[in-house]
Amino acid sequence: MGILDDSVTYQAAVTEYTRRGRLECLAEGERHGEQRGRQQGLRQGLHQGLKEGELQGKQQEAQALVLRQLPRRCGQLSKSQELAMRALSLEQLEALAEALLDFDGPEAFDAWLAV
Distance (Å, rounded) from C-alpha 4 to C-alpha 113? Predict the structure, then answer.
């Protein structure tokens, strides 16, 4: 093999096939990495979507509950009161659901909103 090792043609062929091999390995690695990345992204997206959907459902249910309870304690809500209530976070809606048990009129609700 000593004579071939010194051959310019042999060295050029080894260099070219080594370069091609590296390029093929890189391309295969990229394809594999992209596939794994897509799979992981889909899993994360699904998980995040489920969490957001669950939170949105809780928010809507809390709003519906408070909208049924408030008129019984405070009378008919004004548009601004209803809009203010709909802008509350889930945690605020939960606090309102407890606080409204002590309300004795619409002024109590307005005072609670002001805090």
Answer: 88
pLDDT digits (tens, 9 = 90+) for 35-75: 888 888 888 888 888 888 998 899 999 999 999 999 998 89
Containing structural domain, residue 103: 2-114
Angle at 19 between CA 36 and CA 9, to 5 degrees: 160
In angstroms, the first-to-last Cα distance of the chain is: 89
Overall number of domains in the chain: 1
Q: How far is CA 31 from CA 36, 45, 66, 73, in A?
A: 9, 21, 52, 62
Instruction: Identify the DSSP state of 76.
Output: S
Nearest to 29 by CA among 41, 18, 37: 37
The answer to whether 73 and 104 have CB atoms below 8 angstroms apart is yes
Yes or no: say if 93 and 63 are a contact pair by the CB < 8 Å rule: yes
Could you tell me the pTM of the whole model?
0.61
Q: Say what percent of the chain tops pLDDT 70.
A: 95
